[in-house]
Design brief:
heterodimer, A: Rossmann fold, Rossmann fold, 2 domains, five-stranded mixed beta sheet, globular, B: alpha/beta, five-stranded parallel beta sheet
Chain lengths: 338, 285
């Protein structure tokens, strides 16, 4: 019962959906930078040689060409490993796509630490931070095959610049086929009174498994798949913050500038003070290993996340969990004074 | 006067008037890129008044020719020509760089007729390649033009774009280089050697012609010849003079983005008006 079924790599789903859409839609164009193999777009290129533009290893040119194609009404999906796409060609994303308002669908593949032991050159732990500081580009990080398929389908007719981020490895199924999905609307998977994981992308599955472990230990634990970072779904965040005593963000990204720091800032500004923890990749040279080993190292596992939750709840009981309530009582105008 | 010489005369007169407008706009805003706008204005003049199939009444026509001002800092020249062609009200050029104005100090799609926001160098050609590629895919006959500064050519992305333009045989793409020989620090060949430039572009698979980029007759002639070769993008190496038309600004890197003081402005206008009077006189005869 409390297990998840393994699906395909999200990137496989991206390729399948795009091929399906391209059979009907004459405006689909895919741009690749010697990356069609890792993007799983080889089959697409064979089926639609006229719809695939290869630019070679030249990410700046890739994004510029994508912007030019998009300006003519083409529905452009520009593929490149997230690490290169959002660093080498960041200025092209900023100026040619976002600032010029050309609705390119940028697809960052093998994102986060998908490339594992290939090291820092190949990790993209900065991309969400970099793109969040750029106006006019939406950011989506689907968690499972269902979210991926829906995100790609919705991106086809998306009228704004958008960045979609995917990993390399097979991911667990999280949602049934009738789950409502809309870019910009986070999906609450489980509700929890004690603590809730606000997770994105490939970290949602370990968060769900952690919630099962916590549940077994009498802790009511929720999980939200926060697949869209922009536009940010404040409504769902506030609902979760209202119903859950403590919040933990989980992301395959630096703890700076991604989901965690964004959630923290929005909660602070709204005056919603909760016991809070960011789980992600800390500011350090990352340990060598596969994606799985790196996740293990930084506690992005069912056991690691469950422990983090227990520690947070324990600490907050001892310190400030009830302080806001006491303050609230004292500040109430009709509170008895003595 | 033959039809051609009448056209040349009219365009030469326009160039002088455009130069005056550029200086007046820069003087009014107390900001601007003077030298480069004056070097490229004859190219924009010929493009917008004779070559490009664009219409201010339907700036989004899918079959229009596209122009991308990759050397975005010389935006004054572009705004002046677009205003003259009716893409924006003539008096609007005096809102250049003012608080809340849509006339930003680099090209912006907020202004009708502008296809792409530019200003960071080395971007325009890639975007132009994308547009030209789309025309080929859709079997549309529009052409794509882009103007690059010569200082801009040290950006590596320019060469990535050249490679792809020739790989995809984009003979509907016309790249113009405003070869005024100067960038903000000084002569291009001292800052970072570009020569032999013709050979470089040829080696990257472009068909190259060199012209005097401040000569209306030569520009008219070279644009008549595009595409220079079937299956190849055309590259026009337009040798120009930075600050062209104002004696003390010509070939002086100081005027890259200097604004004339009152006395300099008066002298510049006087010089241009002398030429304007001469040209108007010729017309009368």
């Amino acid at each position: 019962m409390n297990t998840l079924e393994l699906g395909k790599p999200n990137q496989d789903v991206v390729a399948e959906i795009l091929s399906r859409v391209a059979r009907q839609d004459p405006d689909i164009v895919v741009v690749t930078g010697d990356s069609r193999g890792s993007a799983k777009m080889t089959g697409f290129g064979k089926e639609f040689p006229d719809k695939l533009v290869e630019v070679g290893i030249a990410e700046q040119n890739l994004v510029g060409i994508a912007a030019g194609l998009a300006s003519t009404g083409k529905k452009v999906f520009a593929f490149s490993p997230a690490c290169f796409l959002t660093a080498r060609s960041l200025e092209q994303i900023k100026n040619d796509v976002a600032y010029s308002d050309q609705p390119v669908r940028l697809v960052g593949i093998s994102a986060g630490v998908s490339y594992g032991a290939l090291g820092g050159t190949h990790h993209s732990l900065h991309d969400l931070a970099a793109l969040q500081a750029i106006n006019n580009i939406d950011i989506v990080v689907p968690a499972d095959n269902f979210e991926t398929a829906q995100a790609i389908l919705q991106a086809v007719d998306y009228g704004r610049p958008i960045y979609l981020r995917f990993g390399k490895r097979p991911v667990y199924h999280l949602h049934g086929p009738s789950t409502p999905f809309k870019i910009g609307n986070a999906i609450p998977i489980r509700e929890g009174r004690d603590v809730t994981f606000i997770a994105m992308g490939e970290t949602v599955a370990p968060a769900v498994l952690a919630s099962y472990l916590l549940e077994e230990n009498g802790i009511s634990c929720g999980v939200v798949s926060f697949h869209t970072l922009r536009p940010f779904d404040k409504g769902t965040l506030f609902e979760v913050a209202a119903s859950s005593r403590a919040l933990i963000t989980v992301e395959e990204h630096s703890v700076y500038g991604g989901l965690g720091s964004t959630v923290a800032a929005i909660l602070m500004e709204a005056g919603l003070f909760r016991p809070f923890k960011r789980v992600g990749i800390p500011d350090e040279y990352i340990v060598t290993g596969s994606q799985e080993e790196i996740f293990n190292h930084y506690g992005i596992t069912p056991g690691g996340l469950a422990q983090t939750a227990l520690a947070l709840l324990e600490a907050s009981h001892q310190t400030f969990l009830y302080v806001p309530e006491r303050l609230d009582e004292q500040l109430r105008p009709d509170a008895p004074s003595d | 006067m033959s039809e051609l010489s009448s056209l040349i005369h009219d365009l030469e007169l326009k160039s002088v008037r455009y130069r005056k407008s550029i200086l007046s706009m820069i003087k009014h805003a107390n900001s601007g890129h003077t030298g480069g706008s004056l070097s490229c204005i004859d190219i924009l003049n010929v493009l917008y008044n004779h070559v490009l199939n664009v219409d201010p009444n339907s700036p989004s026509d899918p079959d229009r020719d596209r122009y991308i001002h990759s050397k975005g800092h010389s935006v004054e020249a572009l705004y002046v020509v677009l205003a003259d062609r009716g893409f924006l009200p003539a008096e609007e050029i005096y809102t250049f760089e003012q608080y809340g104005s849509r006339l930003i100090g680099h090209p912006t799609r907020k202004v009708p007729g502008i296809e792409q926001n530019t200003g960071a160098l080395g971007h325009g050609l890639s975007v132009a390649v994308g547009m030209a590629l789309a025309a080929k895919k859709d079997q549309r006959n529009y052409r794509v033009f882009t103007l690059l500064g010569d200082g801009e050519l040290t950006e590596g992305s320019v060469w990535e774009a050249c490679m792809s333009a020739s790989h995809y045989q984009l003979d509907n793409l016309v790249v113009i280089v405003d070869r005024n020989g100067l960038q903000i620090t000084g002569p291009t060949e001292e800052v970072m050697r570009l020569e032999p430039l013709e050979e470089k572009f040829r080696a990257f698979g472009l068909a190259v012609r060199s012209v005097d980029g401040n000569s209306i007759p030569q520009l008219l002639q070279v644009f008549e010849q595009i595409p220079f070769e079937k299956g190849k993008p055309s590259l026009i190496l337009a040798f120009t003079v930075k600050g062209k038309g104002v004696s003390f600004m010509e070939s002086n890197a100081l005027w890259h983005h200097r604004v004339p003081n009152d006395q300099e402005y008066e002298q510049a206008v006087e010089e241009l008006e002398q030429v304007e009077t001469q040209l108007s006189g010729t017309r009368l005869r």
